[in-house]
């Protein structure tokens, strides 16, 4: 019988218990023993949940206190010197210092391939040494086995780990570290074998990338050495097709191969031809990254093809770790029956996997027949539902003209008009948009939703928070203000709630990193904006100050990437529908007298296909979607955009093609390294590189920020340089926010003074 397994499971808990425990620990309200006890409880519950759903081989090692790459860095001892304890072993506090920057600069953070999950980037030095330094994986294997579970430890592969890291200090090739790293892997595998483990899952998702030949050769070297370990190895790939790496992956000396048939169904034929029949073939046929119910009949087709050759060596799985899915649809008590019947969260996806594994062997079993009939009915109901298609939206897209995508005047001409109107000083200061989401704000929002606070009372409460944000910014001396977004629960959900075509869950949380969880909305049908979404709040805020107030919007690509999208319509069409809705909002803000509008595209790079050959089409429609939002304004209206936690080298031309007037980016954790791409390309617009890390509770002083500004001014023409934090401030407290912004303004003023003095000396 085909074996049902998973590659990973959500770790946050049914009610985000992990988030609450982490934050309690960081605030000193929970000790380490209590935190660890919570972790054991969550792991036990998640293993039992998967087994109850029919999963036979359970993942262990997919639990992490912050993220799995950081946990792996501790496992192999890749701990930068600034974090190493003066004496004794590494601890949980070491891990959290690396993640959060308590006491020193945190590790850089970026996106996990093309997902909205973040990981802490490993730092490697030329003299890097590795050693087994963290016992968590072995402790969890022992826990699971003691509870009677059949387990499969999950281990990040050595090549993927090195690929994800960055070289620091003297220049060197990260691949040179492989020879030093592999003995630690051998030790890890030996320890796991001694614990009674039969199978280990080694994740090598970089096998779906365009790899240099040296890295391909390194795979052969590495796995020929690791084959000596006394246990079986399942090589796991996901998020794309193996393509030119198929022969390499199929012939590595491992015992099984997992492939993603959701993102790349076309690769099955090649794998069936190339993978030796004595190996296990694991097929990811249930989508681990979206919430829609699996079409069981469609998923069965490749499984039946594979079963003809691999028989009992066929495994059935989700496409990737279920980390990217909400936990359990059964919690959702506010969804209508039709919509709920279209959905599946992690628990339901486990049941789908188990059902498909059984259907391969027993297609006529009553349980299988009933499940297939229910699946068929759900798919047909969804296709025929009137909530899906809106002819007016489709007609508007088809009626667009070339002028709808193009601002009438080039940046080099309109920027002068903007400067004359805004009258900003050199190195203008601003923030990215949000201010602290306090307990008072959350309580007012909850009371309003429960009906305990009427609309007038809610509006008054939010206006009070807006006044506070404006007063603080005026007192600190910022030049371009924001209203603080007190009324917004989330930068995507807030807009989605006001657009037709979206649906929402109560408990559909997924982890983004650490204690940060997001609850993506669901794109169910065609999207349109029935009424203005932000104008009232921004107009009120502008009325409180004579300084420019930015209108704050979320861009179409980010709205799409941070939602669970439709599967029946190309992403391009969904993005353009969103762009039309946002375009209307931009024009309404301009009509209300707002002179600066920021359209955040934090997820712009996240959508970039992993393969080079597929990127041109994505960048074309992603740029077109942004321009559709912004091209309808006058020359003197300044368009800003924001991107965070990305590498920009491979899409700098597309960012320039957005034709935004001002771009702000995360740059502090990389020490302005990200600006190299903008300098080399001679980026034409104005840029605000973030000069302090808002994800850390540490408040950097004026001198630290000024040093970063001087670095930025060496790469960006000073007349085009803005001063801002890395990202929004909603997760920070007011005390640290005010202290950090005061230092930021002081740094900008010091730079202005030094530049003015230099100009006078030159004259």
Automatic annotation (TrEMBL):
Cofactor note: Binds 2 Zn(2+) ions per subunit.
Domain spans labelled Cobalamin-independent methionine synthase MetE N-terminal: 4-308
Gene3D superfamilies, per the entry: 3.20.20.210
Keywords: Amino-acid biosynthesis, Metal-binding, Methionine biosynthesis, Methyltransferase, Repeat, Transferase, Zinc
Residues given in the record as 5-methyltetrahydropteroyltri-L-glutamate binding sites: 16-19, 111, 116, 516-517, 562, 606
Enzyme class: transferase
Record's function text: Catalyzes the transfer of a methyl group from 5-methyltetrahydrofolate to homocysteine resulting in methionine formation.
Protein name according to UniProt: 5-methyltetrahydropteroyltriglutamate--homocysteine methyltransferase
Lineage: Bacteria, Pseudomonadati, Pseudomonadota, Gammaproteobacteria, Pseudomonadales
């Amino acid at each position: 019988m085909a074996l049902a397994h998973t590659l990973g499971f959500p770790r946050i808990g049914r009610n985000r218990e992990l988030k609450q425990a982490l934050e309690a620990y960081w605030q000193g309200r929970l000790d380490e023993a209590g935190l660890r006890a919570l972790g054991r409880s969550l792991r036990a519950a998640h293993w039992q949940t998967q087994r109850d759903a029919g999963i036979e081989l359970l993942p262990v090692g997919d639990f992490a206190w912050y993220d799995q790459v950081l946990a792996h860095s501790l496992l192999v001892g890749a701990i930068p010197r600034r974090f190493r304890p003066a004496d004794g072993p590494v601890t949980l506090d070491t891990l959290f210092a690396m993640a959060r920057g308590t006491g020193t600069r945190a590790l850089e953070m970026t996106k996990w391939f093309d997902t909205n999950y973040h990981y802490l980037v490993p730092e490697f030095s030329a003299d890097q040494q590795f050693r087994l330094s963290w016992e968590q994986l072995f402790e969890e294997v022992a826990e699971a086995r003691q509870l009677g579970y059949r387990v499969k430890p999950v281990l990040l592969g050595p090549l993927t780990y090195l690929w994800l890291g960055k070289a620091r200090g003297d220049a060197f090739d990260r691949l040179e570290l492989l020879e030093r790293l592999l003995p630690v892997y051998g030790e890890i595998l030996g320890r796991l074998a001694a614990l009674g483990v039969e199978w280990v899952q080694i994740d090598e998702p970089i096998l779906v990338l365009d790899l240099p030949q040296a890295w391909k050769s390194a795979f052969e070297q590495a796995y020929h050495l690791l084959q000596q370990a006394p246990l079986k190895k399942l090589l796991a790939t996901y998020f794309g097709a193996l393509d030119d790496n198929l022969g390499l992956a199929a012939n590595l000396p491992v015992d099984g191969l997992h492939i993603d048939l959701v993102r790349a169904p076309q690769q099955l034929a090649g794998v069936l031809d190339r993978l030796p029949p004595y190996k296990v073939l694991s097929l990811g046929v249930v989508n681990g990254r979206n919430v829609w119910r699996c079409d069981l009949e469609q998923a069965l087709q490749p499984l039946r093809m594979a079963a003809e050759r691999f028989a009992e060596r066929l495994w059935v799985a989700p496409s990737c770790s279920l980390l990217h899915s909400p936990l359990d649809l059964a919690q959702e008590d506010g969804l209508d029956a039709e919509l709920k019947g279209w959905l599946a969260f992690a628990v339901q996806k486990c049941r789908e996997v188990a059902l498909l594994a059984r259907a391969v062997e027993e297609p006529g079993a009553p349980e299988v027949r009933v499940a297939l009939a229910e699946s068929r009915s759900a798919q047909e109901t969804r296709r025929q539902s009137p909530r899906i298609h809106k002819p007016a939206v489709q007609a508007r897209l088809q009626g667009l003209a070339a002028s709808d995508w193009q601002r009438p005047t080039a940046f080099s001409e309109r920027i002068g008009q903007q400067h004359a109107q805004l009258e900003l000083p050199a190195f203008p200061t601003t923030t990215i948009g949000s201010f602290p989401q306090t307990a008072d704000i959350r309580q007012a929002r909850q009371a309003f939703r429960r009906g305990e606070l009427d609309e007038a009372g809610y509006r008054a409460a939010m206006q009070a928070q807006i006044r506070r944000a404006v007063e603080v910014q005026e007192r600190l001396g910022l030049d371009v203000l924001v209203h603080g977004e007190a009324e917004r629960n989330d930068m995507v959900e807030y807009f989605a709630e006001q657009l037709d075509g979206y649906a929402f869950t109560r408990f559909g949380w997924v982890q983004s990193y650490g204690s940060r969880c997001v609850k993506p909305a669901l794109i169910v049908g065609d999207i349109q904006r029935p009424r203005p979404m932000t104008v009232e709040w921004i107009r009120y805020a502008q009325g409180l100050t004579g300084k420019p107030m930015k209108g704050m919007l979320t861009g179409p690509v980010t709205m799409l990437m941070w939602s669970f999208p439709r599967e029946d319509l190309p992403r391009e069409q969904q993005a353009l529908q969103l762009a039309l809705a946002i375009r209307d909002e931009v024009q309404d803000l301009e009509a209300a007298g707002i002179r600066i509008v920021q359209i955040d595209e934090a997820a712009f790079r996240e959508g970039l296909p992993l393969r080079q050959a597929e990127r041109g089409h994505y960048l074309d429609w992603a740029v077109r979607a942004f321009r559709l939002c912004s091209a309808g304004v006058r020359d003197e209206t300044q368009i800003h955009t924001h991107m965070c936690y990305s590498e920009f080298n491979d899409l700098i031309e597309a960012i320039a093609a957005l034709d935004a007037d001002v771009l702000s980016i995360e740059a502090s954790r990389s020490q302005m390294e990200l600006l190299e791409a903008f300098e080399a390309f001679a980026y034409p617009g104005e840029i605000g590189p973030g000069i302090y890390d808002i994800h850390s509770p540490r408040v950097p002083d004026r001198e630290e920020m000024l040093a970063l500004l001087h670095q930025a001014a060496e790469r960006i023409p000073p007349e085009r340089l803005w001063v801002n934090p890395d990202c929004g401030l909603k997760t920070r407290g007011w005390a640290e926010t005010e202290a950090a912004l005061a230092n930021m303004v002081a740094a900008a003023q010091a730079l202005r003074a030094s530049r003015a003095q230099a100009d006078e000396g030159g004259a």
